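My current task is to audit a protein record that another person submitted. Alongside the sequence sits a line of tokens, each denoting a local backbone shape. Please read both lines and tell me whether the tokens look consistent with the sequence. Do not assume that whoever made the record got everything right. Thanks in advance; the entry in question is below.
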Amino acid sequence: MKNTLDNKVDKMNDTFKRDYEKFREDTKKKQQDFESKIETDNKASKTIKKNNRQIDKLKRDLESLTVKRAQNENEWRAKNEALESQKSKLLTQYNDLKKRMASFRNEEAKRLKELAKNSKGCTDRLKI
């Protein structure tokens, strides 16, 4: 009886060993696929982290440039307004000066006419 039991145990051990080997062979490909997928996942994770860092940097750069653009826009708007104001003042001064010069020329032309008239009158009186 002991021999029979030992034989049964040996047969069962052999069956377990064969089944285990078969299981290992069946799952070997799956294990390799799993390890390959883990490696691919790790690479993808690194790439995603790198891309996220790059996106964050680009967002910061964009924000910085947006702030800088707004500052420049405000600065140039103020400068343009000052230049427009200065242009308006200069144009007003120019037009005022132009009117004064025209008025001065008219006055000088009148004086010259009067002087010519007076000088003609004097020469006519001297001739008589």
User: Anything to note?
Assistant: The radius of gyration is 53 Å. Residues 2-127 form the longest helix (126 residues).
